[in-house]
Amino acid sequence: MTAPKRRILWVSNHTPFLVDFGGGQRSSLIYRTLRIMGDVDVLLVCPPRSPGRTMEQTHGKPEGLMEIVEPLKRGELLPWRYVRPCAPSLVDKIAYNLGRREVDYERDPKVGAALDRMLAERHYDLIIGRHLKYPSKAGALRYAPTIIDVDDNELELYRSIIEDRCTGFLRRTVLKHRVKSLDKIVPKLMSQSTCLWVSKEEDLDIPGCERASVLPNIPYGMSLPNPPSSLPPNKDSKTILFVGMLSYMYNAQGIDSFLKESWPLVRQAEPDAVLRLVGSRLSTQDRERWAMVPGVDVVGFVQDLREAYRECAFVVVPVWSGGGTNIKVPEALMYGRTCVVSQPAHRGYVKTLRDKESLMVGRNAQEMAEHCIDLLREPERRTRLAETGARALASIYSFDRFQREVIRTAESAFRTCPRLARK
């Protein structure tokens, strides 16, 4: 007699049904693996749709049951809600920045009610939380077994913004206070989960993550039935490629910084150089602003990334803030292109994709420009870097290994608590 299929509940602000950005790709890879083990329903903790987009365009087409619940805004909670009618957006912003950080992780009435209803109707065996905040808002940590994917840890995110020299004094001050609060809150919440995933070894040093297992980000193409093969070098190319979700704050800020501080130096040394910006969710304002810069080719979304990589000499990742790992780095190497990356963007790859062996790491805007100039002038060198990086990538990362880690962790959680139960 075959055992009944397990029922798993996905709780996150990230849909697993869209893969046009790095976070969505990780969500999809985990979700697809969980589907091997049983039925997976989805509770999304976010607005039902983005402005100007339908629900399906915002969250994709679900494969099973999916509920979307928008949590209360900070200004809708006490004591802020008494003054919120005067200026809702302003009060929400003030409440978020000045209010108690504990509130961000407390059970939200709307989200908690949705979780209670789904648990009563479906009787799940396991809860998967993508990021810590959203299962906390649902009250999911009151149940076991639960697995929390701590990719994009807020502590790491805010510390990277504080360290970014482009961050203003006021914002740095606010974030230092926020980190001080989160240092007390986050480890306690993490300890309530049955198991944890982090995306890189460095995250194991974050308080609360010491017992986590590493579930590394991998290029989405590795999961396809016919994974992309490495492209031959393009020795004549003068095109530097950026690939990423162009509306993501830290990508946009990185592009702005590169255009202001590094790109003029590159163009002065190599007047024929072209910076091509490829990625999803490009706003009209950013397109117009970036297109005004000489030598910048603003493309936006493309159907075939392979062609974008084929035409470029190498990839640049000038991202100075943000959490998680930059999937742009291994994706470029998968396609046979080396990278010039900022030091923060190298996090998660320091031991596996080494500086000056697989790619080039810039500690500041000047070094980013110098590396770009060197690689434009030395096609043989960028070919060697790309080949070494592709070999390292193939030896360490694969979808099979990714799946095995997801399944291993889930089975460990099931052994700890065979059925979902209130703690």
Task: Please characterize this protein's 3D structure.
The protein has helices at residues 22-37, 55-59, 88-98, 109-122, 133-138, 154-163, 169-190, 249-269, 284-291, 305-310, 328-334, 365-377, 379-396, 399-416; strands spanning 6-12, 38-45, 66-69, 126-130, 143-144, 146-149, 195-198, 213-214, 239-243, 274-278, 296-300, 314-317, 339-342, 360-362, 421-422. With 423 residues, it is an alpha/beta fold. The mean pLDDT is 94. The strands form three sheets. It has a seven-stranded parallel sheet, with helices on both faces. Strands 11-10-9-12-13-14 form a six-stranded parallel sheet, sandwiched between helices. The two termini are 31 Å apart. The radius of gyration is 22 Å and the shape is globular.
Structural key phrases:
single chain; 423 residues; alpha/beta; 7-stranded parallel beta sheet; 6-stranded parallel beta sheet; globular
What is the gist of this entry?
With 423 residues, this protein is α/β, with parallel strands linked by helices. The protein has helices spanning 22-37, 55-59, 88-98, 109-122, 133-138, 154-163, 169-190, 249-269, 284-291, 305-310, 328-334, 365-377, 379-396, 399-416, and strands spanning 6-12, 38-45, 66-69, 126-130, 143-144, 146-149, 195-198, 213-214, 239-243, 274-278, 296-300, 314-317, 339-342, 360-362, 421-422.
